[in-house]
Backbone:
């Protein structure tokens, strides 16, 4: 990776940290620069405006998330429901740790309608959910349940009690293994 690419990654990771701290609040390039330990000019050299930075952040986080799912699914390659189980497990890890995908959704929302990152990602996940080797309706239900967990966290609404959340995830995983 080139020096410029490394710096861009550092800026994006810094923006992600800031977004995680501030939640849905609007962030500024000055704040991103301070978080990254750079001048504002050092940030605007790569990202001339906040919308471009947020779109790139959403794209990076989404790509990382989907790569984690694909890599985990490869461990069960050829098994029915492998991708759906990976979706459930990676989402659980993400929701209980850094919440990177929520940050990606926030970044995409803050960038306004200038990006199709979230839409493209949801369409991709739907296509994978219905081609995972079992009932496409069940794959869709699983994907929608995961979406619901993320949106509940994102909007601080309808958070599940930890035991219920754990039971839900276990049930979703068990559904991916039925009739195989």
Residues:
């Amino acid at each position: 990776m080139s020096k410029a690419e490394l710096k861009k990654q550092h800026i994006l990771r810094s923006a992600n940290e800031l977004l995680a701290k501030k939640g849905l609040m609007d962030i500024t390039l000055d704040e991103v620069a301070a978080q990254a330990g750079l001048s504002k000019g050092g940030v605007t050299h790569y990202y001339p405006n906040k919308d471009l930075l947020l779109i790139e952040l959403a794209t990076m986080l989404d790509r990382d998330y989907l790569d984690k799912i694909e890599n985990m699914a490869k461990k069960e390659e050829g098994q029915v429901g492998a991708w759906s189980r990976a979706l459930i497990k990676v989402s659980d890890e993400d929701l209980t740790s850094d919440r990177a995908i929520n940050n990606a959704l926030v970044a995409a929302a803050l960038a306004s309608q200038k990006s199709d990152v979230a839409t493209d990602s949801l369409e991709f996940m739907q296509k994978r959910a219905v081609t995972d080797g079992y009932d496409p309706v069940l794959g869709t239900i699983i994907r929608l349940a995961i979406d619901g967990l993320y949106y509940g966290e994102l909007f601080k609404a309808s958070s599940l009690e930890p035991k219920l959340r754990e039971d839900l995830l276990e049930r979703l995983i068990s559904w991916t293994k039925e009739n195989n």
Observations:
- The two ends are 42 Å apart (CA to CA).
- The chain has one domain: 49-177.
- The mean pLDDT is 86.
